[in-house]
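Model it.
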Amino acid sequence: MTDDLTAPTEEQAAAPTAPLETPLAERIEAILLIIDEPIGLVALAAAVGSPVAAVRQTIETLVDDYDGRGSGPRRGFELREVGGGWRLYVREDHDSLVAEFVGGQAPARLSQAALETLAVIAYKQPVTRSQVASIRAVNVDSVVRTLLARGLITELFADSETGAINYGTTDALLQHLGINSLDELPPISPLLDDGADGFDEGVVR
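Modeled.
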């Protein structure tokens, strides 16, 4: 005989089951996987909808986990704090492996968007991704990732205040262009509609 006191009411039976909240560590990892620049704790907490203290504690746990101090083995990547923000990086032990893999990929022609972004970085370096996006008036996240993967640009340093990564070109670009230094790049002014309103200020020379 069913106890009427414990049996669910019709309203309870019809009510949808509330979805379980995704674990905080998983939400943090999801954000860390798609960012191009270090993200601060406050911004990360806002992105995952959790208190800063809880995010800080979870970050510390993830660092230990990735470094092999948790229940699993050490990972090939690490969670590192740079310029006041957090981001995933390949471990230094595997730099040569990654460089060899990237260098061994079949060469492909760069898109017009990639060429334009590369030109901005070459003439304005050191320059942040947001500065490049401002100049080109489009989102350049995927293009910057492509240029990094091709070894044509590199991360130079992180801004001490904002944590934004500053990018510059590599020796690989010089080799592709057949020049010895950035000083041999042609002046940009003659290539613009108005030479007085171009990249002259801040151009690497």
